[in-house]
Amino acid sequence: MWELYDELIEAIPAEQCVDEALTGKYWTFVRASGGGAGLAMTLDKPARPRTLAENMTGMGLRELAAFSKSWNFEEASLGIAAINAWWNAPERKPAASSLNIGDDDSFSFWRERVVGKKVAVIGHFPYLENKIGDVCELSILEKRPVEGDFPDSACEYLLPEQDYVFATGVTLINKTLPRLLELSRHCGIILAGPSVPLAPPLFRRGVIDLQGFVILDAARCAAAVLGEGHSGIFDTGGRVSLTEGMLK
Questions:
Q1: Whole-number Cα distances in Å, 162 to 28, 110, 117, 200
Q2: Which one of 28, 83, 182, 237 is least enclosed by Cβ atoms within 10 Å?
Q3: Residue 222 belongs to some domain of the structure
Q4: Are 118 and 136 members of one domain?
């Protein structure tokens, strides 16, 4: 079950170190010695005790990335942010991919493709119903469902029936992605959001599109992470859509 994580972790060069690591109310931020920076959503209700030191400066980036496998989700958020500090660095963005500054909408690219289709989305993205809900048969699965949502346990029954499945990068933090990939192997998964690594190895595991985030202004992003706002990070970089076809 850990093979997906190990592949992302082991690709990080041993000489890369952590220059800065921050846990904010909404987002977790890691900046690497090579200049790259990564984000992950903060999951800050740990059931398991924390083993990470408070000050991670100078720690190996690969070592911190290994905490993506932690069952303390605050640590796991730091681990995924460390993975993204390597994979989502601007210099590793494929030339064929697009970068949309200040854009957090991962669904516009797929809107025309999902017309008339069965679409499941793991996680309640903001304004999702307005973005694609009017053109498809939309099922939203959420750990904390609101009116109209399905509980996340419905994935076992709903996902095998879908034409398209979207999931947030948080599924890497909470360890649900491997099972979601199994349930969606007939159609593949589109991973969307700032927690998503732009890592081509994920295509071999059933992901068909990576809608991640590349930080262009690390200092400004760090300040946004420590602020009270949820969306300020989107002004510090751009959304990237990376599909397997772009790498051929």
A1: 32, 15, 8, 24
A2: 182
A3: no
A4: yes
